[in-house]
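Exercise 7. Given the components listed, write out the predicted structure of the assembled complex. Treat all entries as one system.
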Amino acid sequence: MPLVTAEHIYKSYKTSGQFEINRLFQSLARTLKQATAPHTGREFVLKDVNFTVDSHESVGLIGNNGAGKTTLFRLLSSITLPTKGRLRVEGRVSSLISLGAGFHPDLSGRENLYLNCALMGLSRAQTADRIDGIVDFAELDEYIDMPIKYYSSGMLARLGFSVSVHLDPALILIDEVLSVGDYQFQVKSAAALRDFIERGTVILVSHDLGAIERICKRTIWLERGEIKLDGPTEMVIPRYLDAQNQILEVNSGINNQLIMKDPRISDVINVSRQALDANIDVLKVEVRTAAGEVSREFCMDDTIVVVADLVFKQPISDARIMVGLIDIEYQAVVMAGDNQLLDSPAAFLGHVRVECRFPHVMMRPRRYGVYVIVSNMKAMMPLYIYRDGDARFLITGERHDPSIHYYAPQVDLVYNPAVEMHYLEVNTPL
Amino acid sequence: MTDHALDGSNSYIFEAADNQVQRTPYGHIRHALLYKTFFWYWVRRSLVTRYRQTSLGWLWALLQPLLSSLIYVIIFTVIIPVPTGNVPYPLFIITDLVFWSYFSRVVLIGAGSITNNIDLLTRIQFPREFLPLAVWVESLVDLLLGLCIVAAAFLLYQYPLTAFAPLVLVAFVVETMLALGLAFLLASMSVIVRDLMQVVPLLMQLLVYLSPVIYPLTSVPKGLQSVLAFNPLSAVFATYQETLFYGQFTVGGSLLLGAVISAVILVGGYLTFKRVEWQFADLR
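Answer.
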């Protein structure tokens, strides 16, 4: 008997089920407006989904936003029922969407752990068996008996995450919420998850196809609520990418018009500069290896060093210099460092050279850009924005140290405390 | 083999088809038992956190009924005197208020227990009826503390109890059925009609005056008494008053009617709750 059996599953949410007078009026107005519009009826979030998952299988789930991945997870964790069709799940399911559910700010970390474990269906004895492991893993030490309202968000996330890796469920559902805590904790949690993945059954939702390729032998591609393709990962992902690239090609034409070409820097094709303060200029930005060589290709666990040369023609006080890496595909900042923790002069004048080290980046294998922003720390006003419009470097899938397992940071600003910035030159006369 | 096979939870199966969960009555019980630890922790969580922030802590559980009784004592002995026969009004009101606040707490907080924990419901599955039931257990703890005050008041006034006093238990069972039934009913409905959460506190305020809580049933004109008899709560409080203070039990008929009505509301409320419980996470 497979662990999960889904037969002809349909799911729709009744949006009109909630009685609201406002909505009644709204829909009345809409009906009057679109009296001629055809009635579409119920909209299905999932349509005729069929699949089975066997024990010890790891399955990737890919698809664009709104494809129905979250709804499928909610069905599998039996939070919601299929509108039509049959679903059978054997054994306890743990889902990373349940991280920290039921936590109460006035209870201590330990009390919340007991509650959270009970919420996952563990008995008192089962919780007692695991509690020391969880507390150790979360690295909260003496904070564990303090009310969690005094915890930082990182500590809270560590607490929640530690529970989920110690539950030993029959099936674990992972939805990309994997970059928790500092770098060292991320490596540890990734290792714990990998350990779990090897022992148990996993369904992984991720936009990071590299992670899916490494973890999942099989991949299901959902599109608009339907299974587009279900098969070996090496077959599904290329087909999915082909479909995505077709969409990208259509969209990319618009972006290119916005980016001004700059002939001064030869190794970069597209650079955009916005000089809001004419007295500042970013002369050169280089991406280097840890050894100091300029490079455009890195391994996943490489250290990346960005060196930026800036010029201040007039004294600029309270200047914040920020150096960051951008995910070209998602147009999102992945990691950034700034000079706020450095011993900086009261004002910048002349030549300033900064070095920003991103140790063991562990970023998804794809193309990245670099940006440098000078802003006024007090007014929070940008003064100068330097940004690569195109790929500056590439992260390849390989890694030097295979013992370090890689997990994707979420696609938003991940403040990584390991990022270090140094001044190489401060206020050298021009 | 990992230890999830050892702890027996692997034998737990979730099966659903066509908007229905496929579980035998035995399966329902097994599923509920899997979460019994959670139930007790949840009750504990609410009890522990309620007064943790306050400097007086658990003293508030005793102070609250005392202080609210004081308000009524001032109003109904000094400003508008209420005839309670030879029963001292403070003793009368504190007894009634302890039983009333048990009722209103189960209904009000029980009704809100689903909407207030909707985040939990959309992230984790567990037997949904545990939330209103946990409110009930918490309220029982409050009731026990309140009854200590009542006992102290009886000792203070040296008011003798009669052989009718054990009938209090019958009234208590009826009151509990009604309160739980209403909590289940309102909790299910308030998810669909959010406005209910605004209306219910007002209705409870009305109910406290429509039931003989702050005044004895005997002070109501005879014609109105028969109307009040259809309110199960009125029979419940009349029973409390007669058996504890007046050493008689004449409202047996209306208490029986109240018991039937309450039982119907409890069964109806629970069935409604089970019918819509899967919509809670979908509607939010």
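Discussion: Chain A has a mean pLDDT of 77. Chain A has two domains: 1-91+170-175+197-258, 271-428.
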